[in-house]
Amino acid sequence: MLELQGVSKAFGGHRAVDGLSLSIERGRITGLIGPNGAGKTTLFNLIAGAMKPTEGRILLDGTRIDGLRADRIFKAGLARTFQIPRPFPEMTVLDNVLLAPAGQLGESVLRAWLTPGAVRAQERRLRDRAMACLDFVGLARLAQDPARVLSGGQRKLLELARVLVAEPSVILFDEPGAGVAPALLDTIVEKIAALNRDGVTILIIEHNMDLVMGLCDPVVVMAQGRLLIQGRPQAVQSDPRVIEAYLGGVAA
Ligand SMILES: Nc1ncnc2c1ncn2[C@@H]1O[C@H](COP(=O)(O)OP(=O)(O)OP(=O)(O)O)[C@@H](O)[C@H]1O
User: Residue 93: enclosing H or E segment and its boundaries?
Assistant: First the structure.
């Protein structure tokens, strides 16, 4: 579904991602782990179009997406969530979700003038869909509140609703468990699993090992910009190379 071929990203002389090749299988929840500075977030930036690779190719369903703008990749069905979501604090929760869909009919003034009925119908459909997404993540009752009232965990759920409006086929989650209270963590894990049951392919960066072991299969380990190993969660967890990479990371 998502294929990386010899992907590198250099910052000056430092290769944050170094000749990485990887296949993300359709319909799975793949975990991406590795010590701090391994290059995980840089890899997400490359896949989602926030950065261009220095070398290599990235294919989504066989079509090259490396070098495409982030909004094009989003429209092609690949969405990402951020480690620290930053909703517009004074806008309502619902309006924050409605910001996401690009290319809606109402965006074209000429079109709005020619076909106001179609625009209104489209807006209604979008609102309904945004409300359904908020309902899915459990935030529907807060739809009219300003986003600033949300807790860290609720912001992650809002972020999820925001990307779901676009009906992505692949979602990259950057540390969905970070900064989330334990009660909401279960909700987030449950929502990710439910989306996956619905056929969404998922790639997750996460430092919380319980979350990774319970949710992800396979698990991919990165160290120093490279792929260290890829395999079943239990096998990865007990692999001496992985333990060494983490201990090396702590010592550094
Ligand atoms: N924009 C940038 N400019 C220069 N160096 C960068 C940039 N982004 C990342 N790096 C460097 O690239 C390396 C990989 O960073 P990255 O954030 O991708 O790691 P990570 O695995 O996501 O780490 P963490 O788990 O701490 O988030 C680090 O050495 C980092 O300092």
Answer: helix 93-98
pLDDT tens by residue, 46-77: 999 999 999 999 999 999 999 899 989 998 99
Global pTM value: 0.88
Cα dist from 122 to 101, 143, 170, whole Å: 12, 19, 24
2-91+152-234: CATH class: alpha beta
Q: What is the DSSP letter of 69?
A: -
Q: Is 84 in the pocket of ligand 1 (CB under 6 A)?
A: no
Contact 37, 248 (CB under 8 A): no
Which of 42, 43, 204, 250 to mutate to test ligand 1, by most ligand atoms within 8 A of the CB atom? 42
ipTM: 0.90
Angstrom distances, CA of residue 67 to CA of 51, 81, 202? 8, 19, 21
